[in-house]
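Consider today's protein:

***
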Amino acid sequence: MSQSCPSPHCHHCGFSKNLLTYLSADEKLSLSLQKSMRSFSKGSTIVKQGEANNQLFFIRMGLVKILRQTNENRRPQIIGIASPRDMLGLINPVASDEYSYTVEAIEPSEICMVELEAVKNLLQTNGEFALRFIEMYSKVSEGILGMRLDLNQLQLRGRVAYVLCYFAQTIYYSNKFTLPISRREIADLIGMRVENVVRILSEMRLEKVISIEGSTIEILNRDKIRWYKLNG
């Protein structure tokens, strides 16, 4: 479902503090006429790899997964997860004619959609906006790359612990949370077989490091799971 943003001048947008604050009143008004907000249900595709790159996406609310299809005969690989205030249009939002990734909602999400040409015009005319835009874009790219590099250095148990700590500390800020992705999606994200993910989660439960009730995870021993994350 598409609708106008809550404020034509972006006063209520979560990005006003770290990006839109560098626009003049006229620039904000001009940009507001070229953006909208859409709501996506869990499992909905927000953008598909290979589609024409004509919009940037800012997550106002929710959680999304970023997938890359490297071979049409294989399943898309989850390469990252994005949360509110992240910018999508990855990883080359301005230079590429096509989206390089598929983005799907893993929770009900609200996405602010901005016409790419409007952003390009601001990048050419507003140096401060351009600088903040590059910083924001680099943060998202660095986050995805950093996660991949961190995971590649860990053994299986460390990778599972990394994902659990990521959701607890970065996404939900709570030791108890509903895991928003399936065991198979965890396996795709961390480069493991799903059987190994299930086995390691079961071992952590038996060790009383975590508790599991359906899709609800609670970290019971923060020191232990942190050790697994760093040394596993």
Observations:
- The first strand starts at residue 2 and ends at 3.
- The radius of gyration is 19 Å.
- Residues 209 and 221 are 5 Å apart (CA to CA).
